[in-house]
Every structure is written in C-alpha cells, then in structure tokens.
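tool_call: predict_structure(chain=1)
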Amino acid sequence: MKSREFVLILLRSFNPDNYKSLKKLPSKRAFDYFFILLLFSSLVFGLLWLIKLSSISGEIDEKFSQFNKFNISLDVKMKAPVILSKFPLVVLDLTGNRTGIGKEYILITEDFVFRKRISPDIGKFTIFKTDKQDIDNYADLLANKDLFKTLTGVLIIILLPTLFFAAYFYFIIKYLIIIFMVSFLAYAFTRLTRKKLKKREILKTALFSSTFMIVPEMVLKNFINMYFLPLVIYLIFFIVCIYMSSEKSFEVKSRHKKKEHDIFDRFR
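tool_result:
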C-alpha cells in the first residue's frame, strides 16, 4: 500500500458514510491498512515513551530521596562473561578468571570495575588510561546514583529495538483478537435481523474503524490511563458504521422489491 493511498483511507475512515465503499475494498487492503496504521502508531508511541523517559533522572532522584541508606551486597558466580553493550564494549565477567581489562571500555569483575577514559600519553603512545575501582565502592547506590542513572539509560538504549518489536507484535495480537471478536458478535447479531451483511464486509468494517481504537490509545497511553475508553469509542463507531452500511443495503433491497411489485401490478 502506497503512502498516499494509506493517508486517503485514514481520512475516509473517520466518516461513517464512507464505509459503504470502504467495505467493498479487497480484504488484503484492509489488513495492509491495519498493519501500517499499527506500525506508525507504535512508532509514535515509542517516540512519546522516549520523551517521557527524559524525566527518568528526576524520578530516580525522587525515589532515592526516600532512602537513608541503600547498600547492595551480591554473591554471584558466572559460567561465562556477558556482553552488556557492544558499542561501547561493556562486559560483565564474574567468573573469577579476569584480572585486567582488554578491549573492553568497561569491565566489571568480582572484585573490581575497570573503566577506560581518554587521557593521551605521547610518551607511551596511548590514548586511554584505565581507572580501577574496588567494586565495594559501588555498593552504596545513594553515593553512585549518577552511575546508576547512566547504566539505566544505556540498558534502555540497548534493549530499545527488542522492546519496539515486542510491543508491535503484542499490539497486533491484542487488536486482532478484539477485531475478530467484535466481527463475530456483529455477524451473529445481523443474522438475527433482516439487515444482513457478509462476513468479509463486517471484518473489513471492523479493521478500518479500528482507527478510533488504535490512534487514541497509542498516542495518549504514555500520558493518561484511558482504561476501556478507546474500546468503548471503537465499539460505538463500529456499530454506527455497521448500521449505516446495513441500512443502505436494506434500502436497496426494498427498492428492488418495490419495483418488482410495480411491474406485476401493471399486468393485473
């Protein structure tokens, strides 16, 4: 689906009158619209989440202010070192086999924390100088909260791609479950009435009208808890679209029947 077509369908999806033509589009186009809409909404959600995270420094300071003392004591053994970050290279090695830093920028061992900092030495032809600190110096989180905030930020950046794709697939499953359940209930209800619609038409209506559920929730989720409000808005709009679409179909059928009666009346 081209961007121009997507924008056009997006704008048309806000008007219930357009659903009599939207439901006639191929099912593939309806699903393409849904996936692209969710992708862009997830990107907006991620950007707003990152903006919200900019205040994490103040929040950490606020949480730490509740403690008078916050020391950590760990007794951990590892089978193999773990790379926390490839660039810059940060390695956690609690195997007990490392006594010095190599190519790493930061190396954390059982007893020490090694860190390179830029300090050119022309005589030794070196650019970096290695700082070596006892790991017990970092046990007091209150005294090292700036380091904790930095490590938290680095960890979030490292996990960001994984978090985005995990969130995207989570939202796909969540919204598709809602859409298929709503479509099934709508189809079952219309079968009990004279205003009957095809399964595909109901499903396509549910996919296109999901704009009213996805956009508000994904944009505002980072700032306010909307609970079930997006779902309620979606259901109301979906019902309106189904009613108007079925009303049109019912009117057309009524007109055809009326014409048939008029024809037969002429021969009487």
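agent: The helical segments are 3-12, 19-22, 27-53, 56-64, 145-191, 199-209, 211-220, 229-266. Proceeding to next step.
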